[in-house]
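ok here's Glutamine amidotransferase domain-containing protein, seq below lol
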Amino acid sequence: MVEQKKRFALFLATSDSTFVKKTYGGYFNVFVSTFGEDGEEWDLFRVIDGEFPEDRDLEKYEGFVISGSLHDAFGDADWIVKLCSLCQKLDDMKKKVLGICFGHQILSRIKGGKIGRASRGLDMGLRSITMAKDAVKPGDYFGNQIPKSLAIIKCHQDEVFELPESATLLAYSDHCNVEMFSIGNHFLCIQGHPEYNKEILFEIIDRVVSLKLMEEDFADKAKATMENAEPDRKQWQTLCKNFLKGRFEQV
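and the structure came out like this:
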């Protein structure tokens, strides 16, 4: 009997830029190369364009990833409302969902957390986030070596102000009180971008500047954060894979 491949799905909440299409073939490939493994099947749903899986198909997936977005997670566009409804179903089913940036905020929203414009303003660049040592324990998806902090690329103007009651804070920073949280064993939410690299970030910065949505000075400071430092991409990759594949379940 042929073993069935494990299936995962990406809910893409942003459009592919010309650069990402040309360099990577689209954001889908960026996510799959970061979180996917041999022998898996990954499906793409462009939720920003109204593409969603049928309810009857949800059971066949091991886990889901919600991407970042230029849109506000507190918005009421049809596709955002539909995504919230779908995530509530996944919550009821206790399906694993990894929420990144916009996705992190959406999962907070559906569980009763408070989200809105970031109190300290737009955050862009490389940031070090601190693990909440009482909440992060050896043997969960962090593995046995718990870092005190991890560097991650940030690119957001909204944030989670107040966690849902059922959430556990996993990390925070000087710029953002809620950098990462979990709900049970099935939701893991990260404000930063584990899938980003330097060239993706810099291209976004250049594009935002060209649209006159960011001052040159702010852009230069954001780029300067990566002059002599890099994100802990491998550790983020391992952590997210461990969560999605159900390794190191929390007790």
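fwiw The two ends are 33 Å apart (CA to CA). kinda neat tbh
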